[in-house]
């Protein structure tokens, strides 16, 4: 970050949430480099020159990607300043959280290439963050390490009744929302930061319909479904992984 920060107009501060509601925007955000750009901007506005230095990419690439992100409403120019007679643009994220409209996945499912690109980019981003955290000794594999540094990974195949799956989904969602709200209230200068990545999906089709929440008290008799749950928590003592991708896309 620069020693001479720019002034950001109030209407250029990031909003709480931005909904990605087009296939084109989803394709843009699925690119690994553009994900990395958004994560880098999570710590605050930066110029193209700063992004090039932080991400170690050729200068010729950055403007192409910034134009795509800006065109699809994912970033915007939050201010400018003159450097050696040249106007330098500073970019910022449009939102603290980017949420994908669930209706898009119905459209996405018919485009195998786009669906594969999105999922590969998502997992690739998490993998790189995990490896970095372990390599730089932010996360520890030792069970006796201090809680803030412990690495937690789990994968389970769960055979549950539909109402139990609904309860699991609701509880996970509530936990994510609860701790996301707490994270937004913590100063960006805080030493503690972690990445949470959760995937919950059915591995078998089920014809049973989950009851409404008010009817869940008495477990219904229904065919159990098989659900896969993968969760990863990588503790990091220094890196703030950004307001988005992948944990905040849900």
Strand fraction equals 15-25%
- Give the C-alpha Rg: 20 Å
Q: Largest sheet, order of strands side by side?
A: 2-4-3
Count every beta strand, where a strand is a DSSP E run of 2 or more residues.
8
Unreliable spans are: 209-222, 236-250
Number of helices: 7
Gross morphology is globular
Average pLDDT for all residues: 76
Strand-pairing-aware structural class: alpha+beta
Oligomer: single chain
- Largest sheet at a glance? 3 strands, antiparallel
Overview in brief:
The chain has 250 residues and is of the alpha+beta class. The chain contains seven helices and eight strands; from the N terminus they run E-H-H-E-H-H-E-E-E-H-H-E-H-E-E.
Keywords:
250 residues, globular, 3-stranded antiparallel sheet, 7 helices, alpha+beta, disordered C terminus
Secondary structure: elements and pairs:
Elements lengths: L14 E6 L2 H8 L1 H10 L4 E2 H8 L3 H13 L3 E9 L2 E8 L1 E6 L2 H6 L3 H24 L16 E9 L1 H24 L7 E10 L22 E12 L14
Parallel strand pairs: 1-5
Antiparallel strand pairs: 2-4, 3-4, 6-8, 7-8
Describe the structure.
- The protein is of the alpha+beta class and 250 residues long.
- α3 (48-55) crosses α4 (59-71).
- The strands form three sheets. The protein has a three-stranded antiparallel β-sheet.
- The protein is built from seven helices and eight strands; from the N terminus they run βααβααβββααβαββ.
